[in-house]
Structure prediction request, 907 residues.
Amino acid sequence: MSQATTTVQAEHEHPPFLQHHFTGMQQQFDATKLGMWLFLVTEVLLFGGLFVGYGIMRAKHPEAFMAAHHHLNRTMGALNTIVLLVSSFTMVMGVWAAQTSRKRLLILFLVLTLLCAGTFLGVKFFEYQHKFEEGLLPGNFYTHQGDTVPGQFMFFSFYFMMTGLHGFHVVGGMCAITWLLIRAIRGDFSASYYGPVDLVGLYWHLVDLIWIYLFPLMYLIS
Amino acid sequence: MEHTAHQHPITGPKVYAAVLAALLVLTVITVTAAGVDFGPYNTVIALIIATIKASLVALFFMHLRHDKFDAIVFLGGVFFLAVFLIFTLFDINSRHTILPSNLKEPVKEFPGAPLNKPVQPSTGTAPVAVPGK
Amino acid sequence: MADAHTLTGTGGATAHAHGDYLDDPKGIKSWLTTVDHKRIGIMYLWSITFFMIVGGLFAMLIRIEHLTPAKTIMDAEMYNRVFTLHGAIMVFLVIIPAIPGSLGNFALPLLLGAKDVAFPRINLMSLYLYWIGALMALGTLFMGGVDTGWTFYTPYSTTTGGGVTLMVFAAFVLGFSSIFTGVNFIATVHKLRAPGMGWFEMPLFCWGMYSTALIQILATPVLGITLLLLAMERLFHIGIFDAQLGGDPVLFQHFFWFYSHPAVYIMILPAMAVMSEVIPVFSKKTIFGYKAIAFSSVAIALVGFFVWAHHMFVAGMSVYAGAIFSFLTFFIAIPSAIKVFNWIATMWQGSIELKTPMLYAISFLLLFTIGGLTGMFLASLSTDVHLHDTYFVVAHFHYVMAGSNLIALLAGLHYWWPKMFGRMYDESLGRIGAVLVFIGFNATFLPQFVMGSRGMPRRYFNYLPQFQALHVASTIGAVILAVGLFLTLANLLASFRRPKGMVDNPWGGKTLEWATSSPPTTHNFEGQPVPLHGPYDYRPVPAPIGSEVHTG
Prediction:
């Protein structure tokens, strides 16, 4: 029994975006999609560690968290939530445009998504600026005067770590969307090849999803 | 499983628009609900609404309703996160009867400002429950 | 053979696909920019070998220091740094990436009949992250070292000086290296199996790697965030782990062990995966209990997430939580024992060849059984109060981490060495090395069980004179172990002086990697291989695994 294998001949032509080690576009699509979901799971657990830390510290110091969150601007938080939800919508519309080979719509929706992301970061910038001015900073950089409830620095430790890490992910998403935009203008995507749009879309929705939890936990404590 | 992903019906703009509308309505609801005092249930309500929103995003925008296997992968991640949270909380909430290091009463000299002010050590003055080993 | 799939992607390298992967193309640049899983595996192998030598040197320093009860060659502060670096290097740079990074990367796609892992570029990135993390870890040497132990427990780690922050970021980077390997392996196993190879026709190595990858994906991100929180605590005093600021130092241990206990199974599952390949080949017999072994791998991976706080029984944790975690910990013994019994049943009535890999495999069975059973002592709440933080713990985890993982790495390395390099090492020297490693290992760590149960605490610089005889015995064992390891390394390296191109399948293996040339070509197989029979079918006339495989 020397021969354990036999071979299967390749039976079709080579599509332009197929990587050499996949046997076909379908396998490539499935594998990369699974890979993206696995990556999203790691993201959930990465942020999850912070959520667990937040939950435990908030359970320990409810008054401090309650008092500290009043320093946040609820309107700005709600505005950013809406901006991010709309960006998720424009992103998924971009995926739809790619799936249906609507090149100009795809470009339009990607640009809109980028604009929303930029707006989000802009609002975030003004919020951070306000916190810096007031000395509402993490740990031993907390210099805010006139607190009646002690221990509020802990809330801002988590506020900056969680929104900061989320902000990094927004920036990463913007880079990825820009890359998509360049490829979309080049005309790479169509109904037969839209994998990257789909995958970046998944990532972008996860960024949105994390914010959906961050918003009530940071801005709406009551 | 290998040959299903492309054959899903492509969800159209109408569905996406409806989902977006639902998400925006839920955002308004959660902000409104935060203004009403439900006692300890405020956080619960906020988290339930957030979970509904997250489910909408996951099911429609991320297409998990067509994607059973990826849904299992994703929920698996959430499950292990829940394991982490629940067991850790269990430890922390059942510690106080045993050891002085985690008293149920908040420690009184909890510092108002961080390290730039002198801080009292936080154990010792509070009533100590002797470990019952 | 014309293969339409090899035409694009990596440029000209694929045009002449008949050279073997080691020489085609030549040049250091082609290695550093490769996306070939085999080359990445080989580079991992050499990196890990290097760090194993570094970590081993630190271990020898520890053993030499303990020749006398007081100071022998270094002072106490230096001793703290030496055991920390030994632990951190061995855990993060050697044991965790050892088998998945080297043997896993090399063999997994071959065993599945795939051309590469699912994401070759991410695989290369994982290797680069490993190197970056390694450089950062070594960089701490120039910042006064690290003296926290590899576990970085708070509050000590947030207050001590030295390069703790850099070491923490090093472990953070290494964690992402591990995650990328995990993502790759899961996607590869799911989507790149050869046509006709169902889940239960996969070699068991793939099940082991799959289970390992599950842990890498689910646990490692939590390590990432833990280390980030620790770094923030050091830099900004954010308060989460600082009792004076209203935080909870024991919470750090929860965070740390939620990763690091499953990480123990990142270390052992690949070792078990190697065993499931080596034992049937050298017993010339179908593996006993295929599904039991496959499912027990997944069970270990999943149950491993429910036991982490057994590291914290005496850390100030709630005793109720302690009781639950103790209870849950015993469940790990079930799948572990299932595997050992199945391997022994595989060997039973087989025609066993005591070649070097098989000698290592048998060593593994013995060492793992000792390591596993002593774990039961530590899992019991009341005995753990006595044994925790003693040399008993040190001996226990060296048996399961070094004794099992390292031995399995050596078993797999000797098994796949002809496949990797197309050359054969000297068999008798290999066997002598295996025996020396086994003797040396036991001589090093058996005395530590005795010391520990008599109360010798771990990580202590000085010790009572009554422990000296046992410490000296342990040091002698370490020397034997070192001699055995260097002999093995020299024997493997000496094989490069022999001619390349021996028989393709020296062991008579039935898995797919033996169906291609040794060493394989860049694209592993000529065309798409299809398994015709099960992976361990040693019958004279193997049974076909399915009708569809004959269409090729």
